Amino acid sequence: MGEDDMRIAAIAALLAAMGLATSAGAAAELKGKDAYGNWQSDAPGTLRLIRPEDLPRPGATPSTANVSRVVPRPDNVTPKVPEGFKIALFADGLSGPRILRTAPNGDIFVAETRANRIRVLRPNEDGTRPASSEIFAEHLNRPFGIAFYPNGGDPQWIYVANTGSVVRFPYHAGDLKAAKPPEIVVAELPHGYGHSTRDLVFTKDGKRMLVSVGSGSNVAQGMGQPPNGLEAWASAQPLGAVWGDETDRAAVLAFDPDGKNKTLYATGIRNCVGLTIQPETGTPWCSTNERDGLGDDLVPDYVTRVKQGGFYGWPWFYIGDHWDPRHQGARVDLKDKITVPDVLLQAHSASLGLTFYEASQFPSDYHGDAFAAEHGSWNRSKRTGYKVVRIRLKDGVPTGEYEDFVTGFVINDREVWGRPVGVTVARDGSLLVSEDGNGTIWRVSH
């Protein structure tokens, strides 16, 4: 028996001892505190449910700096997937691949953020490897989000969210290189410090462009007082809007497709890294990084539907009306006006890319569910994240549960070889996953 087999057997024995063993092929269901884990107990098929009432008190454990060291992928090591699925290397040699988007014609657009460029990969006939790899556009500014417009099968533009702006390129199906320089759509997004990723999507009707902007700080301790006082600010601004250096941050912004008529779509979302539209309902969703410094199991990251006009708590509250102790007693006026996120993920998982599965290659019960990439923790004593999870839905509504789907990116307590970022569904129904540690993209098929 190899080391991996011994570890899996030990996990199975532990689950059995906890009364959580299941029949062959069924998911182990972990709830409440039992749903908290770490890289050693992660396994494809493990189902987790964390509820607001399961949260520990702030400071129940010390806050820990536990930064991982990225090392080359060991020979013959591949990620792990559930029974019945296969995973194989799709592309390598990339420069920090982050967000992935599938064009209507099947091309895969990749944000190579650190290299300031967008790459396009054209899959071969069987979808297993790129037949071609071209630089679509370069000399950008930390590009992340990519969107095709208008919605549907014949987009005319590709929009790209730089860290401080939104630009677009004319596009015709099959273009491998931008035909013209970028046109500026939004000239100025908050930038220069703090969270730098900006994702973007278009509403289902194509009338609004949504752009996510993360906070500039962990918990806005240096924000000061609003102009003209709190009462005047609260009466004039959208619910939960922040001010000063955090203006228009920790939010989803909305614009017309030409970049005009900016509004705050939703507030209090500390860092909505992955932004997508649920195809069935047209509802926007966010994959969110929450705050640090309150212990191993606070504050949960989350994946949630985004309600227009909704306030999700940051910086004063978290997961409903739990006060952040660093803002204890502040903004009492907001305490009963907070939207609770739909799916709580283990704290410090660093949830990034998000996509819905609407294809037919996977079993039918996957249809309509979502996948989120967990980049991995640095603020937790026992490493967590470093995986792709499946977000469970029933009749289009999240159940609150999530399931480990792709694991195996961690080598030991100090070293990892992969940090998942982007997820997209390829034209053939396979799932592609980028990781920016070793610059690879992986293909999950069934």
Briefly, what is this?
The chain is mainly β and 446 residues long. It has helices spanning 3-17, 230-236, and strands spanning 29-31, 47-49, 69-70, 86-91, 97-102, 108-112, 117-123, 130-137, 145-149, 157-161, 166-170, 183-186, 200-202, 209-213, 251-255, 263-267, 272-277, 284-288, 301-305, 317-318, 322-323, 343-345, 351-356, 370-374, 387-394, 397-406, 415-416, 420-425, 431-435, 440-445. The chain contains 2 helices and 30 strands.
Examine the coordinates and then state which fold CATH places here, giving the name of the CATH topology: Neuraminidase
- How much is the radius of gyration in Å? 21 Å
State the CATH architecture: 6 Propeller
Tell me the name of the CATH homologous superfamily: TolB, C-terminal domain
The main sheet comes to: 6 strands, mixed
- Quickly name the level 1 CATH class: Mainly Beta
Q: What separation lies between the terminal Cα atoms? A: 27 Å
Number of helical runs?
Answer: 2
Estimate the helix proportion, in percent: under 10%
Count of separate structural domains: 1
Report the count of strand segments. Answer: 30
For the structure shown, list the relevant keywords.
446 residues; Neuraminidase; 6-stranded mixed beta sheet; 4-stranded antiparallel beta sheet; 33% strand; disordered N terminus
What does this protein look like?
The chain is mainly beta and 446 residues long. The protein has one domain: Neuraminidase (6 Propeller), CATH 2.120.10.30. The chain is 5% helix and 33% strand. The protein is built from two helices and 30 strands. A six-stranded mixed sheet has the order 1-2-26-25-24-23, with no helix packed on it. It has a four-stranded antiparallel sheet with strand order 4-30-29-28, with no helix packed on it. A four-stranded antiparallel sheet has the order 5-6-7-8, with no helix packed on it. A hairpin with a 4-residue loop joins β6 and β7. The longest helix has 15 residues. The N terminus is likely disordered.
